[in-house]
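hey so u asked for the seq, here:
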Amino acid sequence: MLFRSLRAQLALWLMAPLLAVALLDAWMTYRSAQEMATLVQDRMLLGAARMMGEQVSLEDGELQVDVPPSALELFASPSQDRVFYRISKSNQQLLAGYPDLPIPQYLPQADHAVFFDTVLRERAVHGVVFAQPIWSLPGHAPVLIEVVQTLEGRNALAYEIWGNAVRRQVTVLGVVAVFLWLGLRYVTQPLVKLRDQMLERRSGTLEPLMHERLPSELKPLVSALNDYVDRLNQQMSSHSRFIADASHQLRTPLTLLNTQVVYALRDKNADAREETLVAMHRSVQHGIRLVNQLLSFSRAEAGLGQLERQTPVDLAEVVQRVLESLASTAQQRQIDLGFLRPSRAVCIMIAPQMAYELVANLLDNALRYTSLGGMVTAKITLGPGQAVVLHIEDNGPGIAETERERVFERFYRLDETQSDGCGLGLSIAREITKSCGAQIALKTPLGGQGLTVEVVFPAVPSTVPITPLA
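ran it, structure tokens below
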């Protein structure tokens, strides 16, 4: 749960580089402390060697050495280090000190020193070899003064220097972490306030969030939330209107059907009962059509034809299938149902089911509002920029220009006596055309009578493979 917190993740990403730098600095400080402790030890060893060298004298032709106590007192420390020394001639003849103290391979020149590391009596030691010249005997080989010390004191000094530096770094890092955490708490307060603002809202409230005083990083999020709330509000309002309209539209046929059933149960006349059953059948058919139209409109309004569901479809094939399904209806009404089919496939981008729903609603609407013996014609042409245009033309009563926008509203009907339609056909058509980027318009035919419905689909490259209809 800790790493699901945005504040904790920000703190981690900010502290991780600081911690890495602190670790690197601690390692470099340790190396520096070791070098400093070694430098201090080197100076003490060289100082002791020089003090011993100053006590080398020539008496009766022989070299004499008197080791001063102060030379060894330089190494006094709580670490109880062991100090060894050896004073010898250039031919390694021992003058004073420890005979088992090894002499390094490389010896210094006169009045110079060489520092080295070795092992003495199974203990690691660090030492110096200083070549002390004999000033009273020019040309005489220098005396080699070797002083070594165990490493406890040097290591203790290095750890003390390193420990002090690390404690300072840890203190600074802790102070930075505290201020960083306080800063993150302050910076993330707008998120907490935004959460509180959401929690304080009453159930069902869909008002937009205020973002005037929010940080610039949060404004896109709030804008996206407001956009979603607005779309959700429109969707809920649309669904509420749809449910209210659907309830109103279904109440009438159900009430009529109930009346017809009651009348049939009471009437003893067989002929009257048969007539009532025929009327009941028409009412049931009307109810089934109304339910189907409601479902089609609901699917279209929900956006089932969005881009991710769209595929290239042959519009001519869709129109041909719809005409075949409506042929018997046109024959019963003695309507001349025609199709001016293009010589090649005409491709549009749309969900196949939505394409069928669109064409079926337009042609069914034309058949219902065309008088007996009339004519309905479907035609496909190419518009500007290779756009595909579907024309559904009839010679019915038509629609006045002042009413052409209103007929796209749900359940709106010009004259209920002219047809038994539900008032959803053109509403479904508009919703489907919106989902696929097409445009729908109502026009008057060239003959001046009837209505032409034009649907203009965006152009599709001819190289796109067409999806066969199921």
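Residues 6-54 form the longest helix (49 residues). The two ends are 50 Å apart (CA to CA).
lmk if thats what u needed
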